[in-house]
Design brief:
Blueprint (H helix, E strand, L loop, with lengths): L1 E10 H10 L3 H5 L2 H9 L2 H22 L12 E4 L5 E5 L5 E9 L2 E9 L7
Length: 122
């Protein structure tokens, strides 16, 4: 059963402004594992990656019903599988997490669905 849904839209130019003002801004948003991928990316791709992870973590916190504040950005880790699909590798949620991140122009959008675990009882 779905128990939470969240969506977020982030302007990439706002992320650029935050990084320009606070050069350590990515470390406030990204976990150590996410930072590894961030540093591997070409400079042009980094802002889109950061904005996408920010949007996904905001969407996750909305799905939890708390928003960022109760949950911190570093409480949630979103990595990519071998095909590039994002997945939540660490979070305070015990069930299944479905995450999608999209980029278009100056925007990154993410949606998160939280589903409770169902274990077959046969």
């Amino acid at each position: 059963m779905i128990i939470g849904y969240g969506i977020d839209l982030q302007e990439i130019s706002a992320v650029q402004a935050a990084v320009d003002k606070h050069p350590r801004f990515p470390q406030r948003i990204l976990t150590e594992e996410e930072m590894v991928r961030y540093r591997e990316l070409p400079t042009k791709r980094r802002l889109a990656y950061l904005a996408g992870r920010w949007a996904a973590k905001e969407a996750f916190s909305k799905a939890m019903g708390t928003g960022i504040g109760t949950l911190g950005f570093l409480d949630i880790e979103i990595l990519s599988d071998r095909l590039g699909a994002p997945y939540v590798s660490r979070s305070p949620f015990e069930g299944k997490v479905w995450v999608s991140i999209s980029h278009s122009g100056n925007f990154a959008q993410a949606s998160v669905i939280l589903e409770e675990n169902h274990e077959s009882k046969q």
